[in-house]
Amino acid sequence: MHAPLWEWKPYFISYAYWHQKDKFQFVQDSYAEWVMFAVENGSFRYRIGEAAGTAIFGDAILCPPGVVFEREVLEPVSFHFIRLGWPTDSFPSMLPNAASYRSEGTSDFTPPVQLTYMDHNRLSSTYYYIHQLTRLPDEQRLLLWDHYLNDLWQQHVVESGFSQQTSGQQDKDPKIVEATRWLQQHAFEPVSLKELSASQDLSPVQFTRKFHAAHGTTPIDYLTTLRMQKAQTLLLETDMTLEQIAERCGYESGFYLSRVFTRRMKASPSQYRKMHRV
């Protein structure tokens, strides 16, 4: 019998970040270790054994070693590429969204999984701190990598326990997938959610309900998360003024950006910049 999911602790092997990748070098590949493709923005289509779907922000694709991973970029995709391992040679057999495959030369069944995160604010924060690891000394960075990898896993485990998942959950509502892609592409421009819902033949109420069911957050909170990600990056990596950052993030003024940022991040942009810059 397998240990409960929360007792499983993946360990970190290696990491790379791919920014706005418009195509994969190989349309299919396999790896010697487990790999995770954690999408930060953009989207790609994948197939791993019997599991197939579209990965967007809020999704991480977990592929077992030695299994063919087919993939195709739909929209230029930025993602965290993590090689990882598990404390034993077998993987929990009862995972949400599991789809079995048979490894060559073995009769064991192991589930490749699409991990779908509901709390995008927390996920965005985790991704932000993962980016900041590059600023740290090697020993400290490697120590923290195990922490953040486990944080990604435990967030999935906790959210899985709260949600009522079905075997058909991977078949996402195509209208919401399309609307989500549009939001990712146009997040830093003026956005009318009323017009977006109308483009999908949905009323604003229907759109919000369907979007929340798919992502665990409202369209406006999803949009705000994308904008806050960019604002955080610009605050720490540039010397832009608040007005310049607001313009880059889709806000009408630095004053309005400051209000939203302070409410979301519990610190003003100037405080945030001072606390996190090194």
TrEMBL record:
Keywords, ordered alphabetically: DNA-binding, Transcription, Transcription regulation
Organism domain of life: Bacteria
InterPro entries: Homeodomain-like_sf (IPR009057), HTH_AraC (IPR018060), HTH_AraC-typ_CS (IPR018062)
Domain annotation HTH araC/xylS-type: ranges: 177-275
Coiled-coil ranges per UniProt: none
Keyword Membrane: no
Pfam families linked to this entry: HTH_18
TM annotation in the entry: none
Protein name as it appears in the record: Helix-turn-helix domain-containing protein
Organism: Paenibacillus baimaensis
Organism lineage string: Bacteria, Bacillati, Bacillota, Bacilli, Bacillales
